[in-house]
Amino acid sequence: MAKKNGSDEPICSFCGRSESQVEHLIAAPEGGIYICNECVDICRDQLQEHTVSTPDKVELLPPEQMKAELDKYIIGQDEAKRVLSVAVYNHYKRVNYNLKNAESKRGKKRDDERTAAERGGNNDGVELYKSNILMFGPSGCGKTLLAQTLSKILKVPFAMVDATTLTEAGYVGEDVENILLRLIKNADYDVAAAERGIIYIDEVDKIARKSENVSITRDVSGEGVQQSLLKIIESTVSSVPPNGGRKHPQQEFIHMDTTNVLFILGGAFVGLDKIVSDRLGKTRIGFGGMLHSDATDPDAVLPAVQPQDLIKFGLIPELVGRVPVTVALKDLKSDDLVRVLTEPKNAIVKQYVKLLDLDGVQLEFDGTALTAIADKAIALHTGARGLRTIVENAMLDIMYKVPSDKSIRKIIITSDTIENSAPPKVVKDAA
């Protein structure tokens, strides 16, 4: 029995306090060894800090179901949604496969005699590599919304960054590692969850180099950023400063593995269709050639994009090789924009109808108003992104008056309201 100062009172073998100084003293089965309740708490905390948590598998939907979910929020772009659904399904199937493989390897270390089949593991030696995604299409066609909606469907963390804010390390601007920091923050600092998240990098076309020739001068916000993106897009364990930037050299870094992070790159890539058309015009002749009318239509040309077209546009070959899945989005037409206004679960018209319904007022957009909103967005070249602003401007006065005028019962928005800023039709209680 461990004793203190020759007394018969047992003491904790770790901290040396006697039984009377602690709440509880636990004795070992033999050997006269004791441990107090406070030392047990310390040991438990230390074990928890060093326990490697096993991330949960991502709950996957088959591609057809995933597209059906996307259809609830995004109008049109059917081919793009099909390509994305397959690519994202394959990516997270690979993530779950690698996770199962890792569990299998840990099980083998614990018990070499058990077979992979008995553990349900995969031990065939096949390695699956990830395929990041590049989306291109005009502004307001739904690139950002597609990426955000996919993260919601899969219930994985999501982060978005504008590529134009990034600069090469050592220059004024945002480091590429800060992209990972945003994902970690959005995952509530759960690094294991962040390592299975989605990062959307917008405006990638704005960091294209100015020519196909290798730059001999510094291009810190263009080619330099592309070079910096390579290491995190592929598969690496990156050291992420928890406070961002390089202002705190003594800070402890967060280590994050990007092997299972899905990177989706997006941009308008204005002029890419001409590069593709020129290539097709030179190589496709006879019955297999593209009609001249089709060759000038970006919606018909962009699905035929090849890696050499992206390199000619200004992306470096190494970056192009890391985004093998390309998704071409079409420009939204007037009918598409009308559907965007009314059909999705979070449609703009539905939101405003609900807002006024909370004040006891019925809101109605007639058919001509919806078409006028769509046509105005097309004229402004804003795509679906500008729809809300147009509706907000048309309804500003009425939204201002409704809360204080309890006699209003119905509001009808017409094309005259949209095109000429005329007041909407207002139905009030009879005097």
Please sum up the structure shown.
The chain is an alpha/beta fold. Helices cover 42% and strands 12% of the residues. The chain has a 5-stranded parallel sheet, sandwiched between helices. It has a 3-stranded mixed sheet with strand order 10-11-12.
General description of the model:
- By secondary structure, the chain is of the alpha/beta class.
- It has helices at 37-50, 63-71, 78-110, 116-119, 143-154, 177-186, 191-194, 223-233, 272-283, 292-295, 298-301, 307-313, 317-321, 334-342, 348-357, 367-379, 387-401, 415-420, and strands at 25-27, 34-36, 133-136, 158-162, 198-202, 237-240, 254-257, 262-267, 325-328, 362-365, 408-413, 425-428.
- β1 (25-27) and β2 form a beta hairpin.
- The longest helix is centred in the N-terminal third of the chain and has 33 residues, at 78-110.
Which terms summarize this structure?
alpha/beta; 42% helix; 12% strand; 431 residues; extended
Write the layout of secondary structure elements.
Layout: E1 25-27, E2 34-36, H1 37-50, H2 63-71, H3 78-110, H4 116-119, E3 133-136, H5 143-154, E4 158-162, H6 177-186, H7 191-194, E5 198-202, H8 223-233, E6 237-240, E7 254-257, E8 262-267, H9 272-283, H10 292-295, H11 298-301, H12 307-313, H13 317-321, E9 325-328, H14 334-342, H15 348-357, E10 362-365, H16 367-379, H17 387-401, E11 408-413, H18 415-420, E12 425-428
Parallel strand pairs: 3-8, 3-9, 4-5, 5-8, 10-11
Antiparallel strand pairs: 1-2, 6-7, 11-12
Helix pairs in contact: 2-3, 9-12, 14-16
